[in-house]
Every structure is written in structure tokens, then in C-alpha cells.
Amino acid sequence: MLRVASYNIRKSVGTDWRRRPLEILAVLNEIDADVVALQEVDRRFGTRTSSLPPKAIREATRYHPVALGARPGGLGFHGNAILVREGIEVLSATCLTLPALEPRGAAIADLRIGKARLRIVGMHLGLLGLWRRRQAEAILACLEGLEPSLPTVMMGDLNEWNPEGRCLAHFARRHRVVMPGRSFPSRMPLGALDRFVLSRDVSLIDAGVHLSNRSRGASDHLPVFADIAFAGSAAEARHPHPLVSHP
């Protein structure tokens, strides 16, 4: 079984408005995912350096960041970063600028996990519905042009409060949209803003929101996770068909 997770870390600023990157890393250790997509990892102003020091990531976790060609001192692309557990090979990485009124982007990484290959997309969509739809279309168009076609997991903060939102409908045409649960705001979750979008060759085993005393305060979003199986993965041999279905 492979576990993927998505976490909007709000530049490592907790609900007490203190910047505490080590709390974010401790939450990641609690989730124990193999691949993590982070949003809002870099500071928004000034030099836009990473709120998670790479040295701290190396020392406090078993992850290493996918190289996205970020600016000096940064970790992500428009705030999106991908972390992979030690032993997972990064075959390629691509950055995609999304249409938006404000800077938005997506990070794409092709991974080798044992004998299997998996494509990961980390994304943070905009605040306006029209632009979210355009951003979904841009991501899907980019994926259609990538060769070879691979089992794909898209994940991130979609900023979509409406379960019938049209950006979700765009993703759902050829993919499965997974709502792990309500993840925002972390102290009293009301909105299921953080989601997964799976290609049809990825089986969903389980999904949920990671709720702990630490995650309630580390960011204004709770992290979400999904346990998956896909062609060539060890879990796929045990669970060749989806075991659970989420709306």
C-alpha cells in the first residue's frame, strides 16, 4: 500500500500565528505518507524563501524535496512542493504555470517506486470559480500531452466549497475525485477544500483527514491522506479493485 498526503501548511504559520516549521514536520511524521504534496510552502513576500528549511526536513524526517528549479532559498513552485520518502526515485519534474489573476501553479513529478511508476501532481487552485475551471482544464491538458501515460494522483487545496463545483466536474470526466473529509479551518473544519483526483488505473483503498492535537494547531488546514494501489505496486496485487468509494 502506498500512502499519499496533501497539506496546505500556510507558510508554517500555526493557528496561534507563530511560524513553527518543526511542528509541520512533526505532523508529516505522524501521517507517515510516502509522497506529500505541500501548498503555501514558501513565504509570499520578500525573497520568498521556504518556510521549511531543507536542512530541517533532512534532519527531522525521512523525506527529501523534489527539485523544482525554485528560486534561491525557495522549495516550491508558486508555493507547491512535493516531498518523497527516501528510496523513491524522482524520474522527472515539471512546473506548470496556471491561468489566474494571482500567481498560481502546479508541480508534476514522475516517480519510480520499486518496479512501479507513478505521476504526482501537487496543485493549489484559485479563489474564483471561473479561474478554478480554467486551471483544472490547464492541468488536464498538460497531463494528456505527457508521455508515457502513467497512473496519476493529483492532490492539493482546490479551494472549492461547493461539492457540485464545476472545477470538480472537469476533473471527474475522466478521473475519480476523492473527498477525504472536512479539512478547513483546522480548529473547526467546515469545508472539504483539500482533495485527491485519481486516474482510473489507481485504486483507492482508504482516505481521510489526519486529525491530531498537533495538526489542529500547526496550520489553518488539516492534512489529508489517501492509501492507494496501482499497476505494479505491491498493494495492487493485494487489492486489485477499489475497496472504498468516496464522493
From TrEMBL:
Residues 5-221 form the Endonuclease/exonuclease/phosphatase domain. The keyword Nucleotidyltransferase does not apply. GO terms for molecular function: endonuclease activity. Keywords: Endonuclease, Hydrolase, Nuclease. InterPro entries: Endo/exonu/phosph_ase_sf, Endo/exonuclease/phosphatase, GPI-anchor_lipid_remodeler. The keyword Transmembrane does not apply. Signal peptide: none annotated. PANTHER family: CALCOFLUOR WHITE HYPERSENSITIVE PROTEIN PRECURSOR, ENDONUCLEASE_EXONUCLEASE_PHOSPHATASE DOMAIN-CONTAINING PROTEIN. This is Endonuclease/exonuclease/phosphatase family protein. It comes from Jiella sonneratiae.
